[in-house]
C-alpha cells in the first residue's frame, strides 16, 4: 500500500510539473521575453509597447520582459540562444529566425489604415530635382541610405524589385551607402544629409500619426520616387521548443486581444493602434512564401548576371518549390 501511494504521489507531482511552463533545464518558466525592433528610438518603442506587454503579463500570470534591439540580426541571435521566446519580425528577418533560431510563424499583424500589406519606397528630398532615372544613373555622386540587412522593405524588396533587375549594385552605384533604421533614413533625407534612401509606407504613416512639428516638417521635406509591389504584413515568431501549455496561453491572449465590442476590447484596440496593428490574426509558414519568392527571384537575377548556371538552377528549383507550396495552400 505504501509503495502504491508513493508511486501515485510521484505521478501527481510529475503531472503537476508538466502543466507548468518549462524554462531552461526543465524548471518552471518565470518570465517571458518578447523581442521588438526599435525601428525608431527605444524610448518611443517602450512608450508604445509597455501597455500591451503589461496586459500580456496579467493574462499569462508572469512578467513579460521587452527585449529591444536596433537591428534584426541581434534579435535573431537572441532567439537562437533562447534569450527571447517570441517577437515581432519583418518578413525577411522572420524567415531567418525560422531557419536559424528554431522559430515558427504563429501570428501576423494587420494593417490598421487600409488594405493589408505595405510598400517599400525610395524617398528623396522634395524640390531636389532628383528623379528615379537620375538616381539610377550610378555616377557615384549620390549618398544613399538602405535599411538593416535583414529588413524586408529597407533592403530585400529594393534589391529584388529595383536594383537586381537592372543589374545594379548599390555599393558601386552610389558615392556612399549607409545602413540605418527607417526613422534615421527619413530624417537624413529630410535634412539633406542623404540624397535618397529606402523606407516603407507603414513607417511613414507612423511618423504622420505622431503629428509632431518635427514629424510634419520631415514628411513635408521628402517625396517618394519609387514604390515596390505590396509586401505582406509582419509575422510574429515563437520558439518551437516553448512549453506547449505556455504557448496555448500566449495564443489565447494574442488572438482575443482587442476582439469584440466591449469597452475593454476598445481599450485594447487603442493600445494596438499605438503599435500599428489591428487585432492579430493566426498565421503559419505559408505567410513567408512571398518573401521566399522575393529572395529566390533576387538570387536568380544575380546568378544570371554572373553567368552562374549552378546558381540559376538552384534559384529556379527554389521558385518551383515555392509554387508547389503555394498551390497546396491557396484555394482553387
Automatic annotation (TrEMBL):
Pfam families: Phosphonate-bd. The keyword Signal applies. InterPro entries: PhnD. GO terms for biological process: transmembrane transport. Residues 1-22 form the signal peptide. One of its GO terms (cellular component) is ATP-binding cassette (ABC) transporter complex. Keywords: Signal. NCBIfam families: 3A0109s03R (TIGR01098). Belongs to the phosphate/phosphite/phosphonate binding protein family. This is Phosphonates ABC transporter, periplasmic phosphonates-binding protein. It comes from Phenylobacterium zucineum (strain HLK1). The lineage of its organism: Bacteria, Pseudomonadati, Pseudomonadota, Alphaproteobacteria, Caulobacterales. The gene is phnD.
Amino acid at each position: 500500500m505504501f509503495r502504491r501511494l508513493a508511486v501515485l504521489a510521484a505521478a501527481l507531482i510529475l503531472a503537476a510539473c508538466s502543466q507548468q511552463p518549462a524554462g531552461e533545464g526543465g524548471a518552471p518558466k518565470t518570465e517571458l521575453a518578447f523581442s521588438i525592433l526599435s525601428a525608431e528610438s527605444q524610448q518611443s518603442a517602450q512608450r508604445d509597447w509597455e501597455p500591451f506587454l503589461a496586459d500580456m503579463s496579467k493574462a499569462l500570470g508572469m512578467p513579460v520582459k521587452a527585449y529591444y534591439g536596433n537591428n534584426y540580426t541581434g534579435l535573431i541571435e537572441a532567439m537562437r540562444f533562447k534569450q527571447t521566446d517570441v517577437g515581432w519580425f519583418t518578413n525577411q528577418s522572420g524567415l531567418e529566425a525560422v531557419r536559424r533560431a528554431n522559430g515558427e510563424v504563429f501570428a501576423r499583424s494587420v494593417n490598421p489604415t487600409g488594405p493589408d500589406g505595405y510598400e517599400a519606397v525610395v524617398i528623396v528630398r522634395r524640390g531636389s530635382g532628383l528623379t528615379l532615372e537620375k538616381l539610377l544613373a550610378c555616377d557615384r555622386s549620390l549618398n544613399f541610405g538602405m535599411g538593416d540587412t535583414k529588413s524586408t522593405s529597407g533592403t530585400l524588396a529594393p534589391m529584388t524589385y529595383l536594383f537586381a533587375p537592372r543589374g545594379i549594385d548599390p555599393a558601386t552605384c552610389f558615392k556612399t551607402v549607409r545602413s540605418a533604421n527607417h526613422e534615421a533614413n527619413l530624417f537624413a533625407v529630410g535634412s539633406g544629409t542623404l540624397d535618397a534612401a529606402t523606407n516603407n509606407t507603414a513607417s511613414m504613416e507612423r511618423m504622420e500619426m505622431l503629428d509632431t512639428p518635427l514629424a510634419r516638417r520631415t514628411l513635408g521635406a521628402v517625396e517618394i520616387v519609387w514604390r515596390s509591389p505590396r509586401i505582406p504584413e509582419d509575422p510574429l515568431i515563437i520558439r518551437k521548443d516553448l512549453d506547449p501549455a505556455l504557448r496555448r496561453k500566449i495564443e489565447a491572449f494574442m488572438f482575443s486581444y482587442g476582439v469584440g465590442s466591449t469597452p475593454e476590447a476598445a481599450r485594447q484596440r487603442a493600445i494596438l493602434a499605438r503599435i500599428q496593428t489591428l487585432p492579430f490574426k493566426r498565421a503559419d509558414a505559408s505567410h513567408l512564401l512571398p518573401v521566399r519568392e522575393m529572395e529566390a527571384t533576387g538570387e536568380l537575377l544575380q546568378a544570371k548576371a554572373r553567368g552562374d548556371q549552378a546558381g540559376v538552377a538552384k534559384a529556379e528549383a527554389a521558385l518551383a518549390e515555392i509554387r508547389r507550396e503555394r498551390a497546396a495552400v491557396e484555394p482553387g
